[in-house]
Amino acid sequence: MLDETVSRSPPSTARSTSGAYRLLQGRFRLEVRQQLPVWQRVGITAGAILFGLVICGLILVTAGVSASNLVEEFIIQILFDPQNLRAVLFQAAPLILVGLGASLAFRARFWNLGIEGQMIWGGIAAAATSIYHIGPDRLRLGLMTAAAILAAMLWVAIPASLKLTYRVNEIISTLLLNYIASYFLFHLLYGPWKDPGDSFPHSSQFATVERLPDIGPHLNIALPLAISLVALAWWLLHVSRAGLHLKFIHANASMAQVLGVPIKTATFMAVLLSGALSGLSGLVIVSGMEGRLTLGFYEGYGFSGILIAFLARNDPISATIVAFLVAMLFIAGQSLQIFYQIPFSMVELIQAIIVMCVAASEFFVRHRLHWHS
Amino acid sequence: MTAALELRGIRKSFGDFLVLNDADFTVEIGSVHALLGENGAGKSSLMNVAAGLYCPDAGSVNIDGVEIRLSGPRDAKAHRIGMVHQNFKLVKRFTVAENVLLANPRPSTRVGLTEIEALIRRHAETLGFEIDPRRQVSTLSVAEQQRAEIIKVLIAGARFLILDEPSAVLTDHEAERLLTTVREIAQAGAAVVLVTHKLSEVMRFADRVTVMRGGRTLAMLEPKSTSREDLTMLTVGTTIVAPRRSSRPARGSPRISVTGLECARDGRSMLAGTGFFVHSEEIYGIAGVGGNGQGELVEALMGVRLANAGTVAIRHEDGRTIDVTHASPAMRRDLGFAVIPADREALGLAGSLSVAENFAIGQIHDGRYGSWARVNRTKMRDDTATAVDAFDIHGVRSTLQRASLLSGGNAQKLVLAREFSRNPSIVIAHSPTRGLDVRACAAVHERVLAARAAGAAVLLISEDLDEILGLCDRVGVMTRGRIVAEFEAPIDRQMVGRAMVDHA
Description:
By secondary structure, chain A is mainly alpha-helical.
């Protein structure tokens, strides 16, 4: 009885595999890698970055930078010109901070896309402390720092508690809170906090005691501060018990819950720290670089922070290295802007291309190609 | 000569690991051919070669003596080879008919769907299946999904039907029904390969059996003229004695008591007044068809699901009674709870972390591995190495190796090592041997019995009646979120089975 049903409907002989695919298939074989030594992984990532840089170079050449100037602008100028080197060291501190901040949040599987919003609140709180002359001069800078950290933590506490109590998707909440923060900043700068001196939309200049002090010819205090926070983050993630908890939350949250890992507390703390670092980064820019609250002081840092965390695989020390590279890119971008009228968004384009190349290189981390002769 | 699918001298390796080593296998039309072996013997790998999923490094696949080349499942389908995988390949949000259509494309989706629906109904009728082609797959039970898979493969025109561990997800009764149907399919002019590690299925339903061990095919036999003992010897290499429960120890006082537990999921009541108690030095089994609230009960006992009503209370070592209904998982662990969850990948281990980390996380809160400021990794690794030896966990080259590299049985032993090193007073084990081979099963059972001997109250929730009957001192039958009947050892299998069916 079943013979008929079994032999019914002739087998399909159609092949959907395209000719090109089969041609390739004949030439090499794809294998899944079991594991990969660290140096090979680093090599693949470096190769991807290099590949991305070549693409970026081609784009810059089409945009009007001559190929010979490319090396000059990106390498010689940046590394051997003391002025530029100072700028890179200046630029690195806030980037390290946002990179660390993003890494911490990502380790807890919290997609903090609100770094810029938290930076804005850090800047606003620091500026408020300056504008309203809160506390004695001696303590002013300390109070500004504390205010910046606190305000940013409060701002990130909103999406964090929404996620942990009502499971509100933090990707959306953190992103949208950025707009609220930036429009509030616009309101302040076009309104009550507008500089009475020149009527431009920025706050009046901070007093000297309200600015981050220099500790050397090429250095202000922000960089050593950022580096010591890197060490602290390294301890937190790799030595402390909380770091092990975060590892389990990242690897398998439901298993961690069953085993009694305090998921909510650990996640909440990691996210608060992430916000605190973003807020501190806002302070470093406002008080260390700009010297006043400006309109777009935070622009590009949110994306850069995510990029740094991604390329560094959420590791504090790698994040520091990547942050220095991004700082070089920032400075090079500024000079491109000045000398070639290339918009600063080119820097973001370069970043994006490199991210895509590294993300795509993950394929070669997981697979191996075997060539047939 | 009868038509046959023949695999000759198949060799396949992944990296340095040789999974198939010169494996031979032949199945003829009209017969059910069992492929027997322990986990990791290479059964599924060999069948994946036949289904075109793996490309062998050496060897040939022949149909009726003619060598064929399979570069993908599409080729296998063209040669009328169909495989029903252990993890079903169905789109959950599609209906049964849509899934079948996806695998058997028609020029017009709309017309094709009507045609497919009719085909499904016809097949279902001849096979004695009840299946509604318009039901969404996610609303089907596991057994129903399996039927959909079989029909899907048959509609594709399969003459060689490969079933990978088909009874693993089924109850006794369902498995019986399925295997009877499978015999009919074979008799109607198909060749059926039954991949299994269950001897009883081979003895009852297979015409022939090929035994595999360590990537090799050892022998092809006729079950009728072979003894169970011989087959076991071939499969395992040595004879394994299943651990036996000692006679009932002096019964302690109730250690944990659950009363009137109520729980709902997605608005559906899953626990409706569940109540039972477990003594110290006792194994209490909960038998029943899966999906009757077992999962929710375990979650409520682990502390990850909130009960709407009812209480869970335990008697502490110092004699106090403590209400733990709302206690967090961490508090429960402090009070001596140990959990062996059914879903090892999801709840038992973090596969991307190291063996040492997976082991130590169980005791990190006691301060055994350093204070909050510093985790003592050396001690973590030393303890893990000791436990790896004590619990006979194989495949651990380094305690820093990722846990996901362990095979099923060894991964489960790692879970056992973590949970039992703490000398728990209350053990909650949910299907602790699901998907494990004979050897690993025996190891798990031994540990459960040892925990009982050490004075723990053990709650064993399982759909495997043999396991329940072999280990438990008392058994409760769970149906629709309630314990509907209780039995004391010695337990009559028939009576438990009847209780499961009567109250359904």
